[in-house]
Amino acid sequence: MRTLVSRLIHSTPPISRLNATAVRNLCTEPNKVDEPFKVEEAETVNVPPPPTEKLLVLGGNGFVGSHVCREALNHGLSVASLSRSGKSSLHDSWATDVIWYKGNLFSTDSLKEALNGVTAVISCVGGFGSNSYMYKIDGTANINAIRAASDQGVKRFVYISAADFGVVNYLLQGYYEGKRAAETELLTRFPYGGVILRPGFIHGTRTAGSMKIPLGVIGSPLEMVLQHAKPLTQIPLIGPLLTPPVNVIAVAKVAVRAATEPVFPPGILDVYGIQRYSQQHK
Ligand SMILES: NC(=O)c1ccc[n+]([C@@H]2O[C@H](COP(=O)([O-])OP(=O)(O)OC[C@H]3O[C@@H](n4cnc5c(N)ncnc54)[C@H](OP(=O)(O)O)[C@@H]3O)[C@@H](O)[C@H]2O)c1
């Protein structure tokens, strides 16, 4: 008898277990939920969409051009560059993501090949030398590129031109006449998608061979001081010399925005406009 009683006691579920069972049973009533539904989340795989914009940077291995390439890659664009020496001496890791064309703006064939499938162009080609050379490289070479891009149906074209520098304009006549001739061609051929950036001195880190030249050491403090002296630039002849320098990263940022944003206003952007657009968030 004692054994029977003991067996009954041990086969009875303990109170706590009874309670738990009762609660569970209560909660199985319709309209009552004892635990929130656990929905198995589908695994999200972060595959970036394939780039739809293909940007061609003319002079992508130069000082401004290399910063433009890097900025465009950061935006997920497909980036190609055309210059006489191709990839040249750039050893930075981002440079492997650029398609490098060796070519010359004076050769229609090399331009045609590089422009294949391109939606926007940023030209950073320019240079100094004799007046006739400067007119050729800043003017004629860029006019060739603008015409070729327009003929191939490119939507947007950004040209890195230069601010007027008063008396300096007379000393660098070929340079400024070339720049203004290329600007006129751009506004004619790309009335809705043509943007001209007119920076003064551009500072930042310029690569020359294996050397990095920190132009910002002079450029940054000058930019800080001169950006507040805009009225002084109105003084005839010498005033434009007080145009503030601008950082190469700001120029690159605005160039890429101008090349890719359909609502970016066409026309000429001076150094103050470049500073303003570079500080805006999209
Ligand atoms: N740096 C400044 O302070 C400043 C200020 C105002 C305006 N800008 C303007 O900004 C632009 C870029 O200046 P930057 O300082 O970057 O000049 P940069 O370093 O000398 O670059 C010029 C680029 O043009 C390429 N190039 C020259 N002739 C070419 C040709 N016939 N065909 C194809 N590519 C050619 C060069 O590459 P290859 O030699 O390999 O061909 C190089 O990539 C220029 O138009 C300049 O006038 C510059």
TrEMBL record:
State the InterPro entries in the record: ComplexI_NDUFA9_subunit, NAD(P)-bd_dom, NAD(P)-bd_dom_sf
Q: Which SUPFAM superfamilies match?
A: NAD(P)-binding Rossmann-fold domains
GO molecular-function annotation terms? protein-containing complex binding
**NAD(P)-binding domain spans which residues?**
59-203
Its GO CC terms?
Answer: mitochondrion
Q: What is this protein called?
A: NAD(P)-binding domain-containing protein
| PANTHER family on file | MIOREX COMPLEX COMPONENT 2, NADH-UBIQUINONE OXIDOREDUCTASE 39 KDA SUBUNIT-RELATED
